[in-house]
Amino acid sequence: MDQKRRVCVIGAGTAGLCALKNSLEAGLDAVAYERGSQIGGTWIFSEEMPKDDYDEVHSSMYEGLRTNLPKEVMGYPDYSYPEDIPDSFITSQQVLDFLRSYADHFKLRPHIKLQHEVIRVRPRLDDWEVYVWDHSTNTCDPVYFDFVYVCNGHYTEPDLPDIPGMELFGGKTMHSHLYRKADKFTDEKVLIIGAGPSGMDITNHVRVAAKHVFLSHHLPTTPNTAFMGNVTQKPDVQRFTKEGAVFTDGSSESFDHVMFCTGYKYTFPCLSTDVGIQVIDNFVQPLWKHCININHPTMAFVGLPFNVIPTHIFDMQVRFTLKFFTGQREFPPREEMLAELELEIGERWGCGVHNRKKAHQMGERQFVYYNELARIAGIENIKPVIHKLMKDCGKKYIFELDTYRSNRYTIVDDENFLKNGRAGA
Ligand code: FAD
């Protein structure tokens, strides 16, 4: 009898659990290594801070976070949130409970090794050599696999901008990665830089404790409705001074604390250089369809695209790659994959997005991407209702920040949803 082909999943967050479940269902012999002591990744809230320069805290979760997407689109296609949770925009603990129940429902736990950190992945002639450090025994052994799923998450390594005068500023600075509670800012004047989902939400939390918050951003439209009282919106910082900053409109402010909500970097510290993957300005390459390592197509990255419906894109990428890993589809020749990558990037640059940092940004493109994955691998696409619901939620975290989380959605069928009891658009 043929030996089962072996799959290594790095990480047991939302993406890793999905890769593990689908690999097992596809008849592969899969194991997920998780360096933490529990599953759930991002959704684990802990007040833990780094102990020294080399210590890494994984999760960027903070107290009081409620999701910026409704739970109706945050479930997996084959496993939804329980119907007895009335709210659509839920707490991090409810997401964590959901991931635990997913792991239990699909009997994943026997296949997850907690406190096992993958520290080195190296391609051999016919397989992968994976060095795994068992934190509980402090031993490190090589294990051999046919396929590798890289699901290590990408909200841990801060991406800090290079702003003139940073070294002059005499107050405190931090990145949103280590933001945990608003009370740290009691009676302070705070500058928050960046108006992505985290910057907007954290501003809304911090303003409750702080004396004043300045939110610096370059959104094309100023979100007037979202903030009241003690928040002043500012353009980009031109330069820092000892007490504060000068902004690009010539105004200046003084403050005690700066928080950078400026995003994260993709990093893959456990991949050896002969894995053939480079990250240049946050563009991970060369990848086919944003997930397959073109230099070694038996390795897949799950969840790199952003501005997406995370759980659904993870599930589609995993089902897509499994069609190839199980031999039901054949990869195109390397040159073809590279040519496709070049074409896509050329199109992106042609649309004015000549910024490598945005190479994995999706937004509206994600629906074209889903169609493509579904067509190429012959897998089920995301349901139209998920697409419609996502359209209804778009950008609400900017323009309806103070109200959107009270909306309640109900999925009626594959096409239709209700919003606050009424038919959705
Ligand atoms: P993670 O959840 O980060 O999991 C990665 C796992 O890999 C971790 O458990 C880590 O310990 C493990 N790991 C890393 N390296 C190794 C290694 N070498 N060996 C072994 N294990 C390793 N998404 C939404 O859908 N809705 C939201 O409302 C939302 N809000 C968010 C709010 C914040 C503050 C952040 C940071 C993200 C939010 N997201 C949201 C995005 C969210 O991160 C994704 O939806 C999803 O949880 C990412 O899952 P992941 O598995 O890719 O990564």
TrEMBL record:
EC primary class: oxidoreductase
Family classification: Belongs to the FMO family.
Example of a GO MF term: flavin adenine dinucleotide binding
Statement: the UniProt record of this protein carries the keyword NADP: yes
Keyword Membrane among record annotations: no
Species assigned in the record: Drosophila ananassae (Fruit fly)
Cellular-component GO terms for this entry: cytosol; mitochondrion
Source taxon at top rank: Eukaryota
One Pfam family per UniProt: FMO-like
EC numbers on record: 1.-.-.-
SUPFAM superfamilies cross-referenced by the UniProt entry: FAD/NAD(P)-binding domain
Protein name according to UniProt: Flavin-containing monooxygenase
UniProt entry keywords in alphabetical sequence: FAD, Flavoprotein, Monooxygenase, NADP, Oxidoreductase
Lineage: Eukaryota, Metazoa, Ecdysozoa, Arthropoda, Hexapoda
Cofactor(s) this protein requires: FAD
PANTHER family: DIMETHYLANILINE MONOOXYGENASE
